[in-house]
Amino acid sequence: MIADKHPEDIKAMIRKKGLSMEALSQRLGYCRVAVGVTLRRPWPAVQAGIASFLGIDPSSLWPSRYEADGTPRRIRAASGSKSRGSAEARLRQKDKAA
């Protein structure tokens, strides 16, 4: 498997094209930290924007985040996280108690 580009390499590519990560985030219509977050965690819409700005395919920057056909991989929630169902059950319990 081909490794993802290092976040510092992606930052350098963005800077060489004349923008800061904050400016690119805002140009893409997201909060100022969106590009920085995307360098650490998958965010397909922002990944696509970064790749488009750089003139390359997102799967060439983050091959681990994409299937062979180029579609983003679905990332599973961490095993320790609570599911939506359990949160809904807690809310129902509170309604019954009230």
Automatic annotation (TrEMBL):
What is an example of a Pfam family matching this protein? Answer: HTH_35
Q: In which domain of life is the source organism classified? A: Bacteria
InterPro entries recorded: Lambda_DNA-bd_dom_sf, Ner_HTH_dom
Residue spans with biased composition (Basic and acidic residues)?
A: 85-98
Q: Where is the Ner winged helix-turn-helix DNA-binding domain?
A: 4-74
Transcription regulation among the record's keywords?
yes
Q: Which keywords does UniProt give here?
A: DNA-binding, Transcription, Transcription regulation
Renumbered to this chain, region (Disordered) spans 72-98
Q: Does the keyword DNA-binding apply?
A: yes
Which family, according to the similarity comment? Answer: Belongs to the ner transcriptional regulatory family.
The molecule here is called Lambda repressor-like predicted transcriptional regulator
